[in-house]
Design a protein that fits this description.
By secondary structure, this protein is of the alpha/beta class. It contains 17 helices and 20 strands. 38% of the residues lie in helices and 20% in strands. Strands 1, 2, 3, 4, 5, 15, 16, 17 and 18 form a nine-stranded mixed β-sheet that branches. Strands 6, 7, 8, 9 and 10 form a five-stranded parallel β-sheet that branches. Strands 11-12-13-14 form a four-stranded parallel β-sheet. The longest helix has 19 residues, at 425-443.
């Protein structure tokens, strides 16, 4: 007897044959696995299931996968939106140091709970996060019923703690949380990137990867024009060579941004088997310097797996992964010419491609027999969406996270027809409002419905000196004056 059946919907499988089944049925067993994806008929009556959901007129797709996310500062959403990119980065780092000293776990717990609620309500069933409060993230995502891959961000040029302390904390997190919540929560190794890690830290990360070879390594590369110069500070010719030298570049490596890479870097990434995580909106929003855009044609030419993530909530105030994918296509088309992705290919960037990057393609990312039942039901019935043809185009160009009706993870219904069942939205929002008020009182930021502004004396002038001293030690005063704002 099946535990759950979704009946009479249009099923976009994202399987190897890219099937779309009109009037289809998805059956889920009591263990949370998909037992059938098939056309609906009189012979496939769902009456023998514990729960039947009639999705007539609705669209069933795999659960969305946010391939790159930072979550700690969800509650600063809107504070930095009108700042220039360089100014934003200074204020964000400063705010982190101030909050670390003055804000307690309740602030970050409220942030994670709000983030989980927003991800869930937008149809994101799996989150790949790199954060400074990973324990809270693992527990919050796990209790909300979501799937997550989480790594403590390792960055001794940003965080006050040194390499030894950060690596010890990472080991502790891996041992405690990897494989928890019925396997829905996994740990990763998450170095901040060439600009955030010292040579000593990279050496420790290599040892950590040797200890835990099956974990994904999740990092940033080529997100600034100075990336290779930063890598040179750790004794490598360029960023990819830095990873190669430490045995960190292979098919379990996730490379985020890759904005300033070129054709040769794309070839080397493809040969390594590494995956690329693209976050287009933050860079188009702030236009971080004069630059070549994300090298999509070269990555596609060499067959690199590309997934899409939403990145930081304080860079760009959005939680809609469908819209993010739309932005990715429009920006790529603007830069390189039309038809950089078909609509079905674009849907893969937020489903199966993300699953491949996270090492979860055998479990999620498509609707196939034997996979975990992570799926989203979209409701196109409002008059603004009907009638339509070319369903993948409708999903990726027209529908948004606001059209998500039902969310299921591991066969459990977490949201049904817009009502969240696995969390208490009212308490989540109340806690977020209280924490946001404390943030304003602590930092001196002025916020209103009309906008936000930093304190009269910028908090950037009050950050802890230790990260700056560590950068000076590694790169030298001349490098800082030449390359940092």
């Amino acid at each position: 007897m099946d535990s759950l059946v979704l009946h009479n919907g249009t099923i976009v499988t994202v399987d190897g044959d890219s099937r779309i089944i009109k009037n289809g049925t998805v059956r889920v067993g009591s263990d949370g696995q998909i037992t059938a994806v098939e056309p609906s008929s009189a012979d496939t009556t769902p009456a023998d299931a514990d729960r039947v959901i009639d999705v007539d007129g609705q669209i069933v797709i795999p659960g969305l996968i946010d391939a790159h996310r930072h979550t700690d500062f969800t509650l600063v959403q809107g504070l930095f939106s009108e700042l220039q990119g360089g100014e934003l980065l200074k204020e964000a780092i400063a705010l982190y140091h101030r909050a670390e000293a003055d804000l307690d776990d309740a602030f970050f717990e409220a942030a994670w709970r709000l983030a989980s609620l927003r991800q869930l309500s937008h149809g994101v069933t799996t989150v790949n996060a790199m954060d400074f409060t990973p324990e809270l993230g693992a527990e919050t995502l796990g209790e909300a019923g979501l799937r997550g891959v989480i790594g403590p961000e390792l960055a001794d040029l940003i965080k006050p703690a040194g390499p030894e302390t950060q690596l010890a904390e990472a080991r502790e997190f891996i041992e405690k949380y990897h494989g928890t919540y019925d396997g829905r929560i996994a740990a990763s190794i998450a170095p901040g990137g060439e600009a955030g890690c010292s040579r000593d830290l990279w050496e420790g990360i290599a040892e950590l990867r040797t200890e835990y070879p099956d974990l994904q390594l999740h990092t940033h590369i080529y997100d600034s024009p100075e990336a290779d110069t930063m890598a040179a500070g750790s004794g490598a010719d360029d960023t990819l060579a830095l990873l190669e030298a430490h045995g960190l570049l292979n098919d379990r490596t996730l490379l985020t941004h890759v904005l300033h890479a070129g054709r040769e870097e794309a070839r080397r990434i493809a040969e390594s088997g590494a995956h690329v995580l693209h976050c287009p909106t933050i860079y188009s929003y702030f236009r971080a310097g004069e630059q070549a855009w994300f090298p999509l044609p070269a990555l596609q030419e060499h067959g690199v797996n590309v997934a899409i993530g939403l990145d930081d909530p304080f860079w760009f105030d959005s939680w809609d992964l469908l819209q993010e994918a739309k932005h990715a296509r429009l920006l790529a088309n603007y830069e390189y010419g039309a038809q950089q992705w078909t609509s079905y290919e674009l849907l893969k960037t937020v489903t199966i491609n993300g699953a491949r990057a996270l090492g979860l393609a055998d479990e999620v990312g498509s609707l196939e027999v034997g996979k975990r039942a992570d799926l989203v039901v979209l409701d196109p019935k409002p008059a603004r969406h009907l009638p339509f043809s070319n369903l993948p185009s409708v999903v990726m160009n027209t529908l948004t996270g606001g059209d998500v009706a039902t969310v299921i993870v591991d066969g459990e219904v977490l949201m049904y027809e817009g009502t969240v069942d696995s969390m208490d939205p009212e308490s989540v929002i109340t806690a977020a409002e209280d924490a946001r008020d404390r943030l304003q009182d602590t930092t001196g930021w002025a916020t209103s419905l009309a906008g936000s502004s930093p304190p009269e004396t910028s908090i950037a002038r009050r950050i802890a000196a230790r990260p700056t001293l560590r950068v000076l030690k590694q790169y030298g005063q001349g490098f800082l004056s030449e390359h940092l704002p």
